Amino acid sequence: MADGWLYLVALFYFVLGVLLLVAYGHAEMMSFGLYFDQWTYLFLFFMPLMAGIFDYARILLRFGAKRSLATRRVFSPHRLAHLLSGMALLMALMVFQGTFTSIKNLLPVIRGGFLYDQWLAKTDALLSFGPDPWKILLSIGGHHAIVKLVDWNYSVLWFAVCFGTLFYVATSPRAAPVRVRYIGMFMLVWVVCGNILAGLFMSAGPVFYGAVTGDTQRFAELLSFLASPDGPTTTSMVQSYLWSLHTHHAPGLGSGISAFPSVHVGLVALNAFFAAEISRRLGIIAFCYTAFVMFSSVYLGWHYAVDGYASLLVVGTSHFALKWMLERDRGPVADAPEAAVAIA
After folding, report:
1. Rounded to 5 degrees, what are φ and ψ at 342?
2. How far is CA 288 from CA 63, 263, 271, in A?
3. What is the DSSP string of 230-241?
4. What does residue 272 show for φ and ψ, rounded to 5 degrees?
5. Per-residue H/E/C for 220-276
6. Main-chain phi, psi angles of 199, to 5 degrees
7. Would you give per-residue pLDDT tens digits along the chain (344 residues)?
8. Are 128 and 307 in contact (CB under 8 A)?
9. Is the dihedral of CA 307, 311, 317, 322 positive or negative?
10. What is the C-alpha separation between 340 and 174, in angstroms, rounded?
11. What angle do CA 168, 101, 38 make, to 5 degrees?
12. What does the alpha-carbon distance between residue 43 and residue 64 come to, in Å, rounded to a whole number?
């Protein structure tokens, strides 16, 4: 079974997460059940329904007299088998996601706090030749419409892009040539960027900089912007929600605070590298979107710019390394153009 090792990785990760939480005496931080309602609704009902509606609408609009043949092909046993196996794999990823959140909740306990914010902030200023990058972005992007667009993109569109792509790759026969490689990379981004590197370089990010370092002045202007009526309201609410969970040592949906490196950037970068395998034009669009997410993460106070740079480096290196390993073992990977899995 091609998906077998993905299930094994998810199982190993789950066991490791439980052992860590028990070993550090924080079993209350377990988050395995938090995703059940949203994840099952999204991947067992909403997205399959949207996929069926899209397929049927495409048949009505494109195939004319051949609609009956097209319908049999689209809703064939082969297509349904891919759908069901993909949905089963996505349920395993629900447990994987719960494990990620559980470990992320535990990281500040393991490291004894957020240790690298000052170093990352200084590195950011050095790489931008003096000023903090957020100051540059706010000076050129302070218009109300830009604020709302960036807030909506980071809080809503990013999730639709990343998890919509995941659903397509997991369930579509057209994505079969890259399914295991893509989902393996998807898991790698969460584990390597969101747990391993996040734990090694434990940091909270600009919006929480004052709370974890005691220096409340460096990002005071950014915090004032985020809290203002004209600021990004959704982002501000989520940031308050996460800090409240952190201070109460409580698990929650999407809980846990870490900045370096950026998982938001890592996942859209993953899509961009796959998109570039399909066509240069699609790759350019996907990398432009990756840059927009990276700038948004700094603009909204979630990340230092270096968090995004690091994610690009990790994901790019891992993408090409994994592709090279698979091609070496079984010949060139047949990522046909029709396997358009990196819709960014």
Report:
1. -105, 60
2. 34, 17, 12
3. TS-HHHHHHHHH
4. -65, -40
5. HHHHHHHHCCCCCHHHHHHHHHHHHHHHCCCCCCCCCCCCCCCHHHHHHHHHHHHHH
6. -70, -40
7. 678 889 999 999 999 999 999 999 998 888 888 888 889 999 999 999 988 888 777 777 777 666 677 677 777 777 888 889 999 999 999 999 999 999 999 999 999 999 999 999 999 989 988 788 888 888 887 777 888 899 999 999 999 999 999 999 999 888 888 999 999 999 999 999 999 999 999 999 999 999 999 999 999 998 988 888 877 888 889 999 999 999 988 888 889 999 999 999 999 999 999 999 989 999 999 999 999 999 999 999 999 999 999 999 999 999 999 888 888 777 554 444 434 444 33
8. no
9. positive
10. 7
11. 50
12. 31
pTM over 0.70: yes
Alpha-carbon distance 233 to 90, whole Å?
A: 31
The tokens 């109300």 sit on which residue?
Answer: 144
Q: How far apart are CA 315 and CA 320, in angstroms?
A: 9
Which two three-digit tokens encode residue 150?
């960036």
Residue with tokens 């893509």: 182
For residue 174 the two structure tokens come to: 């057209």
250: which 2 tokens?
């409580």
CA–CA separation, 182 and 172 (whole Å): 13
174: exposed, middle or buried (C-beta count within 10 Å: 0-12, 13-18, 19+)? middle
